[in-house]
Structure formats: C-alpha cells, structure tokens
Amino acid sequence: MNFHSQVRRPAGVQGIMMARRMNANHRGMMEWALDHLDASSIGDVLDVGCGGGGPLSQLSRKVVKANFTALDLSQDMLRMTCKVNSSAFKNGRLRTVRGSVSSLPFHDGTFDTVFACETTYFWPDLLENFKECRRVLAKGGRMILVQEAWDSPKWRERNESWQKGFKMRFCSLEEYASLLREAGFAKVTTTAEEQQGWFVMVAETEGN
Ligand SMILES: C[S@@+](CC[C@H](N)C(=O)[O-])C[C@H]1O[C@@H](n2cnc3c(N)ncnc32)[C@H](O)[C@@H]1O
C-alpha cells in the first residue's frame, strides 16, 4: 500500500505509523472540539472510522462514564485503538468491531451518539452513510462530526491537492448540514474555527 492509501485505510506497520501521526495531529482539533461540545448526555458511543483511537481516548476522558464501540475497516486500527485505550478496554468500556459505515452491524437505535472524526472524506455515499448512522441512533441521540477540512474558497487549493493524493471528498459546511437533514436528523448545529479550518457539527435526532 502506498502512503496515500494509508490515510484512507491504514494497515500494517506503515499504517500504524500513519495512525500515530494522525493521533498526534488531530489532538489539538479534538481538544478544541471537546471544548465546544455539550457532553452531558453522551453514554453509549459508536466511533465510526476510529483509526488509531486517539480521538476516542480524548473523548473518553471527557465522558468518563460512557461506553464505546470502535468500528473501522482495518483490523490493525482496531488493535491499535485497544492498545491506545487499554484501560477502557480492560474495564469493559470499549469493544471493537470490524466493519464499514455502509452497513453497520448493529440493531436500530443501539447508541445515543455516533462520533466520526476525520473519516467522512472516504465514505462511499455520504447521504446513505449518514442515514445508516441515523438508523443506529436512539431517539434523542446525536451524530458528531469533527473535521479539519471542508470545501471553501479559502482551502480550495489545499483541498484539491488532498483530493488528488488521498482521494478525499469534501463538502461545504452547508452541504454537510443539508445531507444530515436529508438523512433524517432534525437539527444540525455547526461550530467552525475558521483560522485553523476545523469544525464540529452536531446532528440531533428527534426527541432532543
Ligand atoms: C484519516 S483516518 C481517521 C482516524 C481517526 N478517526 C482519527 O481522527 O485519528 C480515517 C479512518 O476511517 C476509516 N474508514 C475509511 N472508510 C471507512 C468506511 N467506509 N467505514 C468505516 N471506516 C472507514 C479508515 O480505515 C481510517 O482508519
């Protein structure tokens, strides 16, 4: 696998090295996102595209009583997530499941929170995938997106080079929000850090 595909689906030794870098690179954005998140009703989280488990470890320190299911296409990423979050894993607060966002192996309404950090760029069909995330959420649940990139004139040149290299896809903030509403979410709230290009988007199901 080449360097670029290690971002889409990290695997093997190179993938683990890439995931270590991602855990470090995403730390500042996650700290900022967590400062802008009301975490009071987060109890049962599905982390889709968990990668090396860094964002999950930051979230789990904020919501100390929550349980986590980490899902990724890559078995190596699931192993790394267990290592990085070893105490949560040993305490039974964390389980890992190999799978794709296209077809989540969970019953309807299983979680109160679906968390997705830096992964939607690679999802095959955003609308259908958001619907699938919505399906596994209980009434009153939420989907949380945290990303360091979206489509905007300011970032277009950089995005085009990422798009070519990593085959990433970007939407504008309005497009993400409108897809989430089309997928059945009742309310979408966006907070953006324009300087860094970070955003956190919370899409709530009915019943909140
Ligand atoms: C850029 S990494 C981000 C990892 C982690 N969330 C983070 O922020 O550090 C993207 C992750 O999404 C996963 N991924 C890509 N497509 C996916 C899909 N269709 N379903 C589930 N996970 C997927 C990849 O395997 C990879 O681990």
What layout of secondary structure does this protein have?
Blueprint (H helix, E strand, L loop, with lengths): L4 H4 L3 H14 L1 H9 L8 E5 L5 H9 L4 E6 L2 H10 L1 H5 L3 E5 L12 E7 L8 H10 L1 E11 L8 H11 L6 H10 L4 E7 L4 E7 L4
Helix pairs in contact: 3-4
Bound molecules: S-adenosylmethionine.
Identify the bound ligands. Answer: S-adenosylmethionine
Mean pLDDT: 94
CATH topology: Rossmann fold
- CATH class category label: Alpha Beta
Number of strands: 7
Give the structural class.
Answer: alpha/beta
The percentage of residues in β strands lies in 15-25%
Name the strands of the widest sheet in spatial order: 3-2-1-4-5-7-6
Biggest β-sheet strands, sense, barrel: 7 strands, mixed
Amino-to-carboxy terminus distance: 43 Å
- Radius of gyration (CA) equals 16 Å
User: Could you say which overall geometry the principal axes of the C-alpha atoms support?
Assistant: globular
CATH architecture: 3-Layer(aba) Sandwich
Question: Number of helix segments?
Answer: 9
- What name goes with the CATH superfamily? Vaccinia Virus protein VP39
